[in-house]
Fold this sequence. Notes:
Largest sheet: none
Low-confidence stretches: none
Helix content: over 70%
Order of helices and strands: HHHHHHHHHH
Number of helices: 10
Strand content: under 5%
Mean pLDDT: 91
Number of strands: 0
Distance between the termini: 74 Å
Amino acid sequence: MADRMRQDERVAATREALLSAAERLFAERGVYAVANRQISEAAGQGNNAAVSYHFGTKVDLVRALVRRHAEQIEGIRARLVAEIGDSADLRDWVACAVRPTTEHLEALGHPSWYARFIAQVTADPALYAIVTEEFSVTAPSMRVLQEGLNRCLPDLPAEVYAERSAMTRHLITQMSVERERALADNAPTSRATWHEAATGLIDAIVALWRAPVTRVP
């Protein structure tokens, strides 16, 4: 029994090392520019087939990385959604969209690679489908968030709602990338903390949702 437990611990430690190495390399170089052999080497694994053995294909590895973060982000979002209840304040719901990502990045510490990794993945149509699937499975609070936004914006046309949802997603991702990269490079940042960075994003995104809708003749 003790030998089996030690074996399980070694396997878990190897998987975590491979995930951390893959996330960093994918963030820095792009998913398809990184070979499994490079991930194994970066994780300190002598076996070049370690990634395939523990995860299968590169797509399976990406899925495991997305899932690694999605559950933690969902926990933060669920807490924030529960705290605001039936709020009719648009800003409250926008905060529930922004702060799960920034709080998670803050919790990861320095340096982190999640923002840059997820930006690489969502730029690829096939990999983006994995992100959408994983978050839809692990994020029931997203439905509550969308319903809250809808209640605050009852007159917004469906196509404009969809467009601004995409804008919101891109703003959160890309501004998180900018800050994460600056921190990694020890470069100046416009905000002192992730909390303050989230506040700036919330200000901008609330304005985006409240922007006028120009009817095209």
